[in-house]
DNA sequence: CTGAGGAACTGGACGGTACAGTACTGGCAT
DNA sequence: ATGCCAGTACTGTACCGTCCAGTTCCTCAG
């Protein structure tokens, strides 16, 4: 999961090591199952230092999770770049769908997702922040892209937001749910299977929202 | 929810009380957060009796969860009854979609779902069993119904299983995810909103898989 | 370049709490 | 009397958060 904070002086480096270790421990054991001793040990730090940087176990946890929402920016950019440039919506959508699948089925993303869902009652504001900072951000980007495509006559729709919801629903419901309920290793869907899922979802989407061939 | 085991003699009744109490406690606090003392207290039983009926905390948990898969039979029957009788697929599908939403957005179903997802790493076989005993059972029923509808010319599709996946994806991805990430009270979607979601999903589905108006 | 001053860090121990699972005692019904 | 069960005390373990004594690393004047 790369480094969570930037590179800097000693204290910032330690802080980053602690955050990285905490991410690993939380992902592996869940919030309650994670022990601060283990975090400290994995970070190569002492508990004193851990508690100097993060006041609480709760505060450490929320910091870890919220830091990851920055990563969705990459996905947002992929969406915009893929759909605004190309001239063949079917092909572009297939590429986009494949990118979505690859992004969401990464094992650490799945584990993080499971973690946030599991603690949605203990940390309600955290679940909300993750949903809005990740999920909805991608959806609104997709929505504005669809509006532009509709204006160019490449799609026929009244409600671009609804169409965006439907595309991701067609694409992700099955594989993401399988991955949620099966163990964390269930994300390793074969490459060909991902292509099949992406193509099928886009085909159905285009039948529902493709350009009107009119009467 | 209701009672988890059948009615029977005193020992079986106690067993049922313990199971019911355990369900409540696990749903409220999660697996690790649930304490056997609390289960015993809520069941009006002593820990001795609890451990007489269920060897372990783990064993109690898996028993609780697996007992709920029986409930999906009701939903399966609704699917078959709704789709096989009616003569107006659009109307039937809307009713079916609405029934799906109502079933899956019940707060206790959402909590159970969150619980199983959270513990999918600790209890891999449990997640698999729940997915196959609930999720896939409904999907296969829907698939055979779609095959019959296609044979009668009411739908046009090559792959009924794919169409079933797509219908539930269109319908459930957004509301279920919202409910997963927001607190447990997020299931209370307004009635009108549920109708809107159901109608929109069915409309899109029928554009993708409706009877061919063909040449 | 050098070396002192000070901030940050380590390692381990500790109090307090919570909980799984066991054992024991007394009561209630048959 | 006999068998089942409530109530409760107990054991052993795990862990959060704090504290202290000693060490390492960075900084900056000389």
TrEMBL record, chains A, B:
<feature type="DNA-binding region" description="H-T-H motif">
    <location>
        <begin position="35"/>
        <end position="54"/>
    </location>
</feature>
<dbReference type="InterPro" id="IPR009057">
    <property type="entry name" value="Homeodomain-like_sf"/>
</dbReference>
<dbReference type="Pfam" id="PF00440">
    <property type="entry name" value="TetR_N"/>
</dbReference>
<keyword id="KW-0805">Transcription regulation</keyword>
<dbReference type="GO" id="GO:0045892">
    <property type="term" value="P:negative regulation of DNA-templated transcription"/>
</dbReference>
<keyword id="KW-0238">DNA-binding</keyword>
<dbReference type="InterPro" id="IPR036271">
    <property type="entry name" value="Tet_transcr_reg_TetR-rel_C_sf"/>
</dbReference>
<dbReference type="GO" id="GO:0000976">
    <property type="term" value="F:transcription cis-regulatory region binding"/>
</dbReference>
<dbReference type="InterPro" id="IPR039536">
    <property type="entry name" value="TetR_C_Proteobacteria"/>
</dbReference>
<dbReference type="InterPro" id="IPR050109">
    <property type="entry name" value="HTH-type_TetR-like_transc_reg"/>
</dbReference>
<dbReference type="InterPro" id="IPR001647">
    <property type="entry name" value="HTH_TetR"/>
</dbReference>
<feature type="domain" description="HTH tetR-type">
    <location>
        <begin position="12"/>
        <end position="72"/>
    </location>
</feature>
<dbReference type="GO" id="GO:0003700">
    <property type="term" value="F:DNA-binding transcription factor activity"/>
</dbReference>
<dbReference type="Pfam" id="PF14246">
    <property type="entry name" value="TetR_C_7"/>
</dbReference>
<protein>
    <submittedName>
        <fullName>TetR family transcriptional regulator</fullName>
    </submittedName>
</protein>
<keyword id="KW-0804">Transcription</keyword>
